[in-house]
Structure formats: structure tokens, C-alpha cells
Design goal:
alpha+beta, two-stranded antiparallel ribbon, 9 strands, disordered N terminus
């Protein structure tokens, strides 16, 4: 195994430990709110969706999402996922992340108006994409803050 492979595995393991530590943390506004560092300069306070029930509900029924807030969905072990906008009332940006980098980015994804979940598009279409995390942000955040595919994403627990 090359030294770069060992460094990548070590970095991935460290990221997994930090992200795993996010599960169960309170919502934004509390003292222990986890954050994502997206690219070099963007910090976003996170709510955490780690259980299947939390992941399925996500940001459904929200009527607003402050600019500097978002939700992280944790997938440990990594797996292929598709997201949809069923019962989501606001447009969102979706950052599909694997091993600390944005591998797919969907911007300003519109709400799905269908009452039948089969009538809602999935992101990405098809078989899905393997990820370790997905971060959802207010629609247009990526464009307003220069976020793009390939950007690094790290997770932090302030005060720890």
C-alpha cells in the first residue's frame, strides 16, 4: 500500500469519527451545534439526520431554512443514495459527499408538488451515487458562495 493510500485511509477514518460524533447533537442554535466547512471559507451550522427515520424525514415540511444552516445525512457504511423533494416546501441545494469531497451538486432543486411520491424526481436519477454524507442547504447557497463539485467538506464540533 502506498503512503498516499495510507494517508487517504487515515483521513477518511478521521472524518468518519468526527461525522459519527455528530449523530445525536442538538439542532442549530444550541452551544454544541456541529458545523460543516465547505470549500475554504463557508461555515454552515448543521442538524444531523443519522437514523433511517431522520434521513427519510429530512427537511420535509419546512417553510424556511436560514442561509447559514443546513442538514447533514450520515451514511456509515457508505452507500448509494437518491434524494427527492417529496413534501419539501422550499428549494434546496444538495451536496453529495464522499470521503470529504463534493462528488455531485444539485442546485436550486425545486419542491415536488405531487402527493404521490412516485411523481417526484430523484437526485441523481437512476441508480444513485455512493456517498458518506449528503448536506442540504437553502436553494441557491452554492451559487451565492461559490461552492462547486470537487470542493472539500469537513465537519467540526466547536469547542471540542
Amino acid at each position: 500500500m502506498s503512503s498516499s493510500s495510507i494517508r487517504r485511509q487515515s483521513a477518511s477514518a478521521a472524518l468518519s469519527l468526527v461525522v459519527a460524533g455528530l449523530a445525536g447533537f442538538p439542532c442549530p442554535g444550541s452551544a454544541a451545534t456541529p458545523v460543516a466547512r465547505i470549500g475554504r471559507d463557508n461555515l454552515v451550522k448543521l442538524e444531523v439526520a443519522a437514523t433511517e427515520q431522520e434521513i427519510e424525514r429530512g427537511l420535509m415540511y419546512r417553510t424556511e431554512l436560514p442561509e447559514q444552516n443546513g442538514m447533514v445525512f450520515l451514511f456509515n457504511p457508505p452507500r448509494k443514495v437518491n434524494f427527492w423533494m417529496y413534501h419539501t416546501l422550499i428549494p434546496l441545494d444538495m451536496l453529495f459527499i464522499k470521503d470529504g469531497k463534493i462528488v455531485r451538486l444539485f442546485q436550486n432543486v425545486p419542491p415536488c408538488k405531487s402527493e404521490d411520491p412516485r411523481g417526484c424526481a430523484t437526485y441523481p436519477a437512476g441508480d444513485g451515487i455512493e456517498v458518506t454524507e449528503v448536506v442540504e442547504l437553502a436553494g441557491g447557497y452554492a451559487q451565492r458562495h461559490g461552492v462547486k463539485e470537487g470542493d472539500p467538506v469537513s465537519f467540526e464540533l466547536p469547542g471540542r
